[in-house]
Amino acid sequence: MAPSRHYNAGGSAFEVHSPQSTSSITKAPPPSPPTDNPNLFVRIARHIYHPIGFRKGYNFTFWFICCGAMAGFCAARAQYLNIEGVFFESTLLSEKYWYSTVSLYRLGITIHLACVIPAGMLVFFQFIPIIRYKALFLHRLNGYIIILLILTGNAGALIIARHAFGGGVEIQAAVYALAVLTTTSLFLGYYNIKKLQIEQHRKWMIRAWSYLGVIITMRFVMLIAATIINQMGSYWMGVSCKELEFGFINGNNTFAAEMAFRDRYPACIDLSGTLLPDRYIAIQGLENGRVEEVSVGYKLSFGMAAWVSLVLHAVLAEVYLALTSRETERLRMVSYEKQKARGWANPGREGLTADKVDGVPWVPRQTE
Question: Deepest of 37, 210, 291, 296, by most Cβ within 10 A of its Cβ?
Fold first, then answer.
């Protein structure tokens, strides 16, 4: 009966023998170089991704696109850490109203940006294989820092959810859902790596960053939807009078600005001439309208874009994991080897694995 050969994350091979021979894991010679005859493009690509630890082109491609997009997106928004400068110039006036004073919401947006922006840039290095192979300490340290930043950033997002892009219930639900999904995935990824269940660690970390990548995709969806909504001119949204007044004044507290607001929205003023701050006025979304009218499209489309992007990313993550089942099985054998070397009772299934629920215990693959 011939043994089956598997390879661990470091590239070395081990053999799992059948019960008739032995159940031990023995070292085997490293695999021979591939004998295929790749074209020029593949040869050039391999010279790029082999030195940083990638062995398959599709893995490198997904890392370059997904992690590169995340790092680039966060790097471009590092300037938003200047809350009163760049961030205020690019945000909606209704959001600026809530962040302009020292308040809980100002604290929330500051915490959120200060944590998720560096985390998004650090993750670019977290998925580089050569760092895991040659500098495992840096991989672990970077992972701890990223998890801490994301969890703290989620707390900041929960604080501002009530007023982010209008703060509708669909927006709050999307923020809460993203916070729960990312937090749960990170905790499960951490739990499994502490149990040396490497394939489950990989799965949950891929899921976590797929959910976190929603913020990029939803920007494109939101821009398209906002343009359509404002062009149609048939969507309305309630906006508070205090936000409308802030938009007219916007740091220019002059008599002319105040009178322009009162003339435009007389329903916000009572009979004694006092502002009714908590009264809401229906504002129409218009592409070429006033600032508050143009912003309606962005507010209305934010929640929809978040949900559409979340579903898309969740599905794509599961499709990718299903299509890379061979990598999952390879890493489970690596987990088996490491857990058995520790003398644990259930090697290959010490972490959160499906066979703990369905009652069919996993066993190392054998070849007759």
Answer: 296
